[in-house]
Structures are given as C-alpha cells and as structure tokens.
Design a protein that fits this description.
The structure holds two protein chains of two kinds.
Chain A lengths: L40 E2 L4 H4 L31 E10 L9 E5 L25 E5 L5 E7 L4 E3 L5 E3 L2 E7 L7 E7 L17 H5 L2 E2 L12 E4 L2 E3 L15
Parallel strand pairs in A: 2-11, 2-12, 9-10
Antiparallel strand pairs in A: 2-5, 3-4, 3-8, 6-7, 8-9
Chain B lengths: L19 H5 L27 E6 L1 E2 L10 E5 L24 E5 L7 E6 L4 E2 L5 E2 L2 E7 L7 E6 L4 H6 L1 H4 L13 E4 L2 E3 L2 E2 L9 E2 L1
Parallel strand pairs in B: 1-11, 2-12
Antiparallel strand pairs in B: 1-5, 3-4, 3-8, 6-7, 8-9, 10-11
Classes of the chains: A mainly beta, B mainly beta.
Bound molecules: fe (iii) ion (FE).
Chain lengths: ~250, ~200
Amino acid sequence: MKSNQKPNLGGYFPRDRVRHPDAYTPWYKTSVVRSPTKALISMNNTLSEITGPVFGHSMLGDLDNDLMLNYAGAGESAIGQRIIVHGRVLDETGRGVPDCLIEVWQANAGGRYRHAKESYVAALDPNFGGCGRCITDEDGNYSFRTIKPGAYPWPNGPNDWRPAHIHFSLFGHAFAQRLITQMYFEGDPMIPYCPIIRTISDQDAVQDLIAPLDMANTIPMDARAYKFDIVLRGRRSTMFENRMEGN
Amino acid sequence: MVQKLNLLKESASQTAGPYVHIGCVPNFCGIEGVYPEDLGASMLSEKTQGERIKITGKVIDGTGTPLKDVMLEIWQADHNGLYPAANEHRGEADPNFTGWGRCPGDYVSGEYTFNTIKPGIVPFFDGRPMAPHITFWIVARGINVGLHTRMYFPEEEAANAADPILTRLEHQVRVPTLIGKKTGEGEYSFDIVLQGENETVFFDI
Ligand SMILES: [Fe+3]
C-alpha cells in the first residue's frame, strides 16, 4: 500500500483562504452578484469530504491528451504554436497525487473558443476543439500536447483582455480537494492587466500559476515545453485525532 | 534554527469562466467526437440499488436571476451509506452506482437535473449518524472559488434535527436553505441562492 493511501487518516489541511481569491472582487464584475456575502461555515472533514469518485485510466482515449489532434480531421492538425504542457500534481506535503483526473480547456491560437456563447471575431480553427484530459501516473506526473492559446478580449471593463491561459479542472482523491484553476505562460506581458488574475491578492500565489518555458523538455524541431505543477490540499497523516469509532 | 516543515501551498483557485463546458461537458456544448460521453452524465444503471430520486433546481444570483453558465457536481453515498471511493474502508459500495454526478445548467432556464438514488446514513467523524445528504459543488463565471454545500431531505425531520452539521449552525434560521423541497413522488427541488436574504449556507470544508 502506498503511503498516501493509508486508511482512516485525518482530514485535509484547511484551505488557506488568504491565498485564494476573495469571492467579492468588483473589478471582475460578474463576481459582484455571484459572491456569497455571509461567512462560509467551517466544518471538520467528514467521510463526505475525504472521499471522492475514482476515475480509471481505462476511460481515456488515445488522443484525449492531444488537443492538437483530438478534434482534427484525418491528416490534419490544429493551427498554432505546438507546445507540450507537463508537470506534476502534488499535495501540500510534497507527495505526488496519482490517479488525479485533469481536464483542460482553452481558446485556439487566435484566442477564440468553440462555444455558442463566444462572440470574439477571431477565426475558428476547424481542427481545434479545445478540450483534453489525462490522469496522473503513480508519481503524479501528467502531460498533454496542444497549441499555445491566444490572448482574447472579454466584456468586463471597456478594454479587458485575458492573457494566454489554459483552464485546469483537478480531481484528487477527495471531494475536499476539488479545484479549478488556470495556467499562464512565462513572459506574457498581459498578465499584470488581467482582472481575473488580480482576484488573487497574494503575489506568490499568482507566480505559482505561471508555467515556465522548459527548454530541457522541448522536443527539437517540433514542440516547446512548459512545466506546470499543481498543488492540491494535503492530508493530515497523524493517526490520533477525529478517528471514526467503530470503523 | 528549527527544522523546516517544507509544506507546499495549494494552488490558487481561478473562476471556471463561461466556457467550463468545453473542458468538462464538451458533448453538451456541441464538441462531439472527442469523448464518447460527458463524465458524470449518468450515475445509475438498472441494477443500482435504492430509491430513485430526481433533483432539479437553479443557482440564483443576487438579483434573483438564474445562472445560465453554471456547472454543478454532486457526491453522495449509496443506499447503504457507503461511498464508491478508493478510500471507503467500511465495506463495498454498490458497484452499480457512481456516487458522482455532473450537470451544467440549461442555457435558457439555468435548470439542472440529477437522476440518482436517495443516499443512506453516513457517520460523522465522531461516529454519530449524519442525516442523509448530498454534497454539492458549484462553479461558474464570477465564482472565484468553487462553492460547497449540502442538500438534506425534507422528510427526514428527526434525522435532520439530530444531524451534527445542521445542529451546530449558529443561525438556525438558515437551516432551511440546506433542505430540498419535495415536489412529487421521488422528486425534489433544490435552488441554491448565492447571495441575499435567503443565501444558501456554503461550507469551508
Ligand atoms: Fe478562458
């Protein structure tokens, strides 16, 4: 049995709400009427929070982690800068999180999403859908291949743009670890202007969402690599508190 | 100098944005042929044990308007109160029940629907029974950190009155925001109100 699969350990480390965005961030206008105004009610983790669904590697198709090809016609591929995004999913104790489902979505190279509600004038790429998924290996490693998304404008302030980014949804081992975040790209000059990034006031937390160019893992004459590690909540490893009786 | 704890910090949350469908329910938003079906679309099979129930509702903003770009996930125990999880050590959950569902709000009405079963009783960490409940997780454009809440069942009056979570809420006047409404045989509605007078209780779990 792996050390991170011991039964009946403690709950998850409390979420550091100072590091996460506040709910009410009026410069990101949609948050104004969608933010709870009463305090969240704190509770110790119960079985309902420390358990979570299991996603098997067998559900994955061969191209699920290849956004360059998974929507493309035969012999075609998406237009754009070819990149590999890879990294590890870790928990706060530094252990790799195996069997973590990662789902990603992004705009195409021109900054256009394939979605009915998308209104940006940039062209659709007929060979790019914009979704991908993978499951981490036993050490928490993952990788996928895609094209670098473009920056895009959005209706918020009179002239707001999103920096290039990839949306990440992560399923660790517990519902308490559920997380959606975004990956940004090293050196993007749009980052300081983004109202959504500025929902995070902790500048270290912002830096941790910016993936560095990873020349060591770049494939010559093919695709550049960016490395993006993601940290999910850690779990108490002491056996002595809040143990469920009779289980 | 003392030893270093060397703990990492959880990655910061960011909003799911308006296009969460592309990544999480691509077939729903017309991106077909990448995945055979959207994850979490079906929790049941004919063999699933337990009482069939249907839960519908909307997620409502501070102006009273339903969110039309919301995505909800639910997680619940099987009919015996066992979770279909790798770390469920109390017994084997119903192999024909996933325990997990995902549903986007309807583009026009904002309504969500889950077809599932009524969960059994799960113990609190101190062993006391928790009333049957379903855990909800809500993400959308404008929600910076996904919101956790629970739906309890209106017919479980005695169990709800003894539930360790419901009883410890200081503002008991808010308890009804966590209890679904029975709308028919095996049918419940559960609206989630993001802010205002009847703001749903959200948990920091
Ligand atoms: Fe985006």
